[in-house]
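User: Hey, quick favor. My workstation is busy. Could you predict this chain's structure for me?
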Amino acid sequence: MCALSLADYRNVQRFIAEITATTEFSRDRVLHSLSKIFGYHKCVFWKVDESGRLHQPATLNIDHRVIELYLQHFSQRDILSPNRIPHRCSHHKVLRTKDVIARKEYEQTEYYKCLMQPFEMYHELGVYITDGNKTVGVIGLTRSKGEKDFNAGDMLRLETISRYISNAFVQYSIHEEMVKKQRILESFVDRSTHGIVFFDKSLHIHYANPVATQLSGEWLTNATEDGGDSVGRFIQSIIQGMDLERGIDKTIDLPFNRALSVHIAPYIGMEPNALHPSLYIAQMKPHLVKLATTKEVLEAESLTQKEREVLACVSRGLTNPEIANELFISVNTVKRHLQSIYRKIGVTNRTQLCYQVKSRTTT
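Assistant: No problem, here it is.
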């Protein structure tokens, strides 16, 4: 039984350190490390799609004409293709051509005669990158007829490192797919007229479209809160004391006689995983609020008697000093009453208040 030598173990550790040197996985880095550390100088790293076909190759010292011919005419004739030997490559992480077909028979195939032989390639080996029992990638190594064939030591060495490559590649693929889906989603929600926010249980905002940022900023101003991350503060204020899993529906006041309907629920568009936690989606829909008439405002229970008197004066067009003189109060007291009226009625200045009173007067 062949076993790895001490030098092989050291090289395996060196290889693992190199391909995991950064958080971003790189197929090119894998191929260069195979060449530099183990002497596999001609190699290609394929992705495998859902139907088992090889695509999007990363190559090292492989003539581009070989790749073009392979994709155009020979991908279905590849002796080591996962589609040709699905059962064998699901049980063996490393296979050589001669493990699948006799040499003499191989030399008579069109695959060898028209693709491999013209480019002086003879010995071939496949390293199968798997996610469970599913093949998600293949590393193909090749040597010329004049070079030594891949031996048992190569097989063991490559089988050992295949586990680390598989793990890194699968994690990278998951992240890549999530990023792709997120970009598609962001492209869609950016065009929405509603505010849309994605966040997790720790209240980390993963994405907020421009409308959500704008509406949260308006709420922040209306709520007289301190500045900062308006979207994060808005979401925090909505869910405080609420059960996220059961969903949340609230209506929030905005300036200029508007309200904001907010619906929050678990987001089921993406499966959570180790890299991406469970997400929640907040949908924010602004709408106009019917303005109260002068009579309704004057009779509102929330206004004190003195505030009603001040509002009646405003509706007549009196200035602050004139109101103070008529009601026998100071100008500062008039201003305090006005601020209270603004807050209760949902306006931010005298102009809006006058417009509301004058334009909504009942007959």
